[in-house]
Amino acid sequence: MYPDLEGKTVIVTGAASGLGKSIALRLGREKANVVINYHSNHDGVEDMIKEIEAAGGKAIDVQASSSEEDGVKKLIQAAHDTFGGLDIMINNAGKENEVESHKLSLEDWNQVINLNLTGYFLGSREAIAYMLEHNIKGTVINMSSVHEIIPWPHFVHYAASKGGVKMMTETLALEYAPKGIRVNSIGPGAINTPINKKKFEDPEQKKQVESMIPMGYVGEPEEIAAVAAWLSSSESSYVTGITLFADGGMTKYPSFQGGKG
Fold first, then answer.
1. Beta-carbon neighbour count of residue 1 at 10 Å?
2. A Pfam family this protein belongs to (predicted)?
């Protein structure tokens, strides 16, 4: 637990399910004030708020598109109006879909880039502008992926978006370090989230994925939420401009495990 997170205000985009939900709940258990952003699916959000409040935190839900300027400004304003400020911005909303690259439509490309990269830029820009205006030494966390460095055929738009997130995070971290604003990314590997449910229900597919993970198992959302809590806290006060991979070793060339090669 991180006592310094108590009373801090955090926005989590795409927080109604998956990694965003786990992160919002974890920060709620740290007694933070949580702005739960959702785009269209509100299922279970009221239960999330109750769980956070039962743990000693506070929470509100805000419907907004995190890939649009007005949507992001709405989130910042909600944090300001309800909790009096903003300390932590977690850009998490994202999407992926499998398409062979030579068949990928411009529409599909734009949808993924707009949400996964442009949305993160807007969230980072607005949060940093707010922190500068109010003299807050805050934190921005971007949800990246192992695919910011691992190529992923059939997911060129997703991989490109996460590669962009990597360089955006590093650039913003360098630019705003003198102001005391930290910017980092989290790079999850294979995680047991709803988007992967169908894949991991197939024993063969799950076994294949596990063979690519040196630690030998698919991660749980709570393991990523733990990373987000640490990066949000003062325990990571000297950390900026990194991608913290939480991937069971997936980025460490698992095919060479055991002295192969």
1. 9
2. adh_short_C2
